[in-house]
Amino acid sequence: MKCTIVSLFLIVLTSTTRVEAHAFLKDAEPAVGSTVQTSPSEVRIRFTENIEPTFSSIQVFDTSGKEVDKRDVHLDRSDRAQLHVSLPQLRAGMYKVVWRVVSVDTHVTNGSFTFRVSR
To answer: Which of 69, 92, 106, 112 has a C-alpha 20 to 30 A away from that of 30?
Structure first.
């Protein structure tokens, strides 16, 4: 009986699946769904895991679908889970941020959100 219990215990231990980490959006500036009074100078997105900047992107589009960011996505020097992309002066209106990141453990995640500039 003791051998059976030990065997079952070992089977359970060896058959448990490893939890895989993925980089999901943790917070953003401008915030998801927010309205800002003036044009932000950049979009910053922090993820739940460190990311690989070479294979990651942030794009910002206006309502006509035109990309309006400066295409200079870069990793924050002090926070390997945060990406930045610079923006020109934006007009009042709605903007869509589209992101795709590869976490340092090679998992890909993506998503989008909007924000509005009121003036």
So the answer is: 106
Q: What is the domain extent for residue 60?
A: 21-117
Q: Is residue 103 situated within a structural domain?
A: yes
Rounded CA separation 79/76 (Å): 5
- Determine the 3-state secondary structure of 2 from DSSP: helix
3-state secondary structure of 73: coil
Residue 87's closest CA among 39, 28, 32, 37?
A: 39
Is 12 domain-assigned? no
Gyration radius of the chain's alpha carbons: 20
The CATH number covering residue 45 comes to 2.60.40.1220
Smallest CA-to-CA distance from 82 within 43, 46, 52 is with 46
pTM over the 0.85 mark: no
pLDDT tens digits along 21-55: 789 999 999 999 999 999 999 999 999 999 999 99
Alpha helix segments (H runs only) across the chain = 2-15
